[in-house]
Hints:
Blueprint: E1 16-18, H1 21-40, E2 45-50, H2 56-65, E3 70-72, E4 75-77, E5 80-84, H3 91-102, H4 112-125, E6 130-134, H5 145-162, E7 165-171, H6 174-181, H7 183-187, E8 189-194, H8 204-221, E9 224-225, H9 231-242, H10 246-262, E10 270-271, H11 273-288, E11 316-317, H12 322-327, E12 338-340
Helix pairs in contact: 3-4, 4-5, 5-6, 8-10, 9-10, 9-11, 10-11
Amino acid sequence: MNYQTKNDFPEIPKNFLIRYPRFNELHQLIRACQHDSLLAGEPSCLALEGLPGAGKSTLVQAYARTFPRYETENGTKIPVFYMHTPSPVTVKGMAESMLTALGDPAAGRGTTVMMNHRIVNFFEKCEIKLAILDDFHHLTNTNTVHNFTLVSDWLKSLIKETRVTFLVVGIEGSVEAILKTNKQLNRLFILEKLEPFQFDFNKVNTIEEFHLFVAYFELGLSVKLTSEIDRLQLLFEIHQATLGVVGYIVQLLRQATLNALRDGDNDENTIKREHLANAFRKWIARKTNADNPFSGKIILPSNIPIIDFKAKKLMVTDPPDSVNNRMNRRVPPKENPLQVFRAN
């Protein structure tokens, strides 16, 4: 099929979110930290680490969206403050970025200490209950003990002065290294990791969870994986191709979907093995250094479990609108596995 103009290219939906069990567990843990902070009178903070592509940013951004900013007679209220850490950045640059995001017209003025005082004032004025600092490892690009000490002292001071729950997010090992530098800071944090999907034939629930994640992608993209190959076989190949990393799974399935939609002989929006193989070669292979698992050469182990994939029920929900979000900012709406967002 020839594509001559932009409108000739097939488009696929981008406005949906899959809430799988570990995703929801971590959301519940974030809420628990906020609740514990209120009870204890001291911030109960959380550090979230994971491999690149593990889905950390998607997870915390989804949580932040549940608590949007809203206006009152006394100014803007920000129940959950989210900020992506720029790169490269120093501690002072980070403080300036936070003030800019908070709306300070003089964000870059003053010393780091002066900036921290203004951050504390903004946090109080905006009634911030949770601060999410994403890609926090950008602050540790200078991998020295001195730099780690500067970062840990700054973060400890900010938490102590604002008395707000902080969620810091970074690649595996980065945040933990900062926490270990300062015992007082380390005491305030729970460390959690967002691991890739498992595919363990001795633990059927891991296979079922992976199947549901893929099935929700099929539903969200309005396509289906080919039934010419055994479902378990194809799921195993997809897991081998992506190593279970959410970002790789998403990229593989999106690109395979585009390949399927561009296939002039494919009228049923079916993702065939060849579509997956081409997507893997172009987008995934160099990242995982794995052989193409869609060659048909992978053989499933003997005595594999029997799984009735059709018995797993899928649910879809539209999120509440912004008015309902404001009304429910203290108690977020019930989370179903596939959330479809309306276009703005």
